[in-house]
Amino acid sequence: MQTTPATPDTDLQADNLRRAAIDKSVKGPVLFLFTNGAFWLMLSTVLGVLAAIKLVEPGFLGDCQFISYGRLQPAHINALVYGWGVQAALGIMLWIMARRSGQELKGGKSLLITAGVFWNITVTLGILSILCGKSTSIEWLEMPKFVWPVLLLAFLCYAWPIARMFGRAFRPEGFMVSTWYILGACFWFPWIFVTANVALHCLPNLGAIGAGIDAWYIHAVILLFFVPVGVGAAYYFIPKITGQPIASAQLASAGFWTLAVLGGWTGMQKYMGGPLPAWMTSVGACAGVLLLIPVGLVGLNHHLTTLGKHSAVATSPTLRFIFFGALFYPVSGLILALNSAFWTGASFQFTQSWYSFQVVSLYGFFSMCAFGAIYYIVPRLSGCEWLSVRLIRNHFWFSVYGVGTIVIMSLVAGWQQGNDLNNPEHWDQTFMNHVINSRPYVVSRAVAWALISFSNVMFLLHLLLMVAGLGRRSSAPTLLEHHDDHALPNEAHA
Questions:
Q1: Which residues make beta-bridge pairs with 385?
Q2: Which residues contact 94 (CB under 8 A, 6 or more apart)?
Q3: What is the CATH number of the domain that holds 219?
Q4: In this structure, is residue 4 part of a structural domain?
Q5: How many structural domains are present in the chain?
Q6: In the chain, helix, strand, coil percent, each to 5?
Q7: Which pLDDT band holds residue 136 (cuts at 50, 70, 90)?
Q8: How many helices (H) and strands (E) does the chain have?
Q9: Is residue 246 part of a domain?
Q10: Which of 21, 54, 200, 428 has its CA 20 to 30 A from that of 283?
Q11: Which residues cross the membrane (predicted)?
Q12: Calpha distance 264→217 (Å, rounded)
């Protein structure tokens, strides 16, 4: 029996059908996570505006106890981390792993949607509890104790099919950078989440070590969950859009394993000079500085991969967001090193500089990469293209200017606060003087969050139109420069 040899067109058609089947299989859970995450993102940035205003004008909107700074700030961070961050990360992880492994989501879609519903209900109850004064007062874990087991089970419902896809994937090329980062995030987050919650909620009388565990938890979630998802997305989409393979598999492998080894040792340097064993703060400080190594390796690899293709940043929404998100990655590494090193950490300790690190990591790096991924993924799931280039541009520039302003102002404010607190000439002054001196920086933070909130409202409306199938009907992608519509065939057909 004679068979007809496969032609390139036949192979391309078969590949497109396979990708369409994969996209259809994960469409429901991924769009559910993205949509709900966008709602929480908008809410978290609005809460950030209110928290910054209340910090400089406590009488704003009256003396209502539900919107005091002590309640708004943790609600703002928890909504950003658990409402937006984790949901967006899970949606990106599920889609990339399905695409990269070539595996469809065969079953369990209803379970994933149900887990997502429970996640959102639980986070809602947790945020309301914080606003009602039921906070645990443990940073990033302020929601009541009943919350964390539900969140853990919901996360595992998504982690299991992601890990299963990886196990079934055919990997002829060996080390797959993006999938290794995503697989690492799947395993690291439950370990970090369980360890911190069991230690802080179930073990009594921890004393000062409890504060150290909390600081470790914050850094570990950033470095071993949000950073891997952001880097994994960048490693997937940059070669996909530019059409160039990753420059160096050796650099990619070294960056991954260095982050895996060092990422879980940071955090306790926040309490250098405090009532913790000196070796704990020393190890955290050393790891915080050494993390510049994986940051540099990833940055160098991304630069080498995009050589000769930087013009695509002007046309592709995905590449523009991920490119600037990748630029914020070394910035976050430098801020972490400044906060960790003994010769500078004493000045930044207990100041707004730590807020700068959290914002640049969560919003400057991870969220920008997540936006880029969403602008690429959603059209392939909804079957239509983004409606407005102007909305995408506004979302990008408001986000860049806003997060840049918050990071710079918080870092400068932290440096000034640290110098004032450590200056013997100021020791006889009341702490209120330091609060007054930081007022201009907090006002700029409020303005920046307001700009970001406006852009996120537009992003949410744009996303809802796409999910409803009301986007632009076209086979060509929505590009930022119309005269280069045919310059990115990979983005149009991948």
A1: 472
A2: 26, 29, 30, 33, 105, 158, 161, 162
A3: 1.20.210.10
A4: no
A5: 1
A6: 80, 0, 20
A7: very high
A8: 19, 0
A9: yes
A10: 200
A11: 30-53, 79-98, 110-131, 146-163, 175-196, 216-238, 245-266, 278-300, 321-343, 355-376, 396-415, 446-470
A12: 9
